[in-house]
Amino acid sequence: MLKYLLITPLLFFSVTAETQVHPDLNQPNIDIVTTTQAIKQHIERHWLRPPGISNIEQLKARVKLTLKRDGTIKSLRIVKSSGHQFYDNSILRAVRKAIPLPIPSDKYEKFKLLDLYFSG
């Protein structure tokens, strides 16, 4: 299962753990949570983990994306490597295959910059 965190200016949300709310907020923004889940599911459908990595469950990587208004990539890079090039490249391939990402045009400002944390 793809696991990652999405950080936006308004919310710190973990898709695979309990919701963690930004200290200035009392509850998560449901629209952000729903859109985050849609993005997660969309990328997950395109992620093929490289075979033969014995400790894949322990690997973690962070990807930074800048998106265009139509959900395509303006920039994409690994900002924290897992230490395993094949694993990192599989994440980048999954994101590229998942383009365009399902971001409603009215939420573009909230999702134009994404930090995605992937593990195992």
The proportion of residues in beta strands is 15-25%
> What sort of overall outline do the alpha carbons produce when their principal axes are compared?
elongated
- Tally of separate helices: 3
Helix content: 25-40%
Please describe the biggest sheet, giving its number of strands, its sense, and whether it closes into a barrel.
3 strands, antiparallel
Total discrete domains: 1
CATH topology: Fusion Protein Consisting Of Minor Coat Protein, Glycine Rich Linker, Tola, And A His Tag, Chain: A, Domain 2
Q: Rg, please?
A: 14 Å
Q: Name the CATH class.
A: Alpha Beta
Distance between the termini: 7 Å
SS content category: alpha+beta
Low-confidence runs of at least 5 consecutive residues: 1-26
Order of helices and strands: EEHEEHHE
Proper CATH architecture: 2-Layer Sandwich
Order of strands, widest sheet: 4-3-5
> How many distinct beta strands?
5
Overall mean confidence score, pLDDT: 77
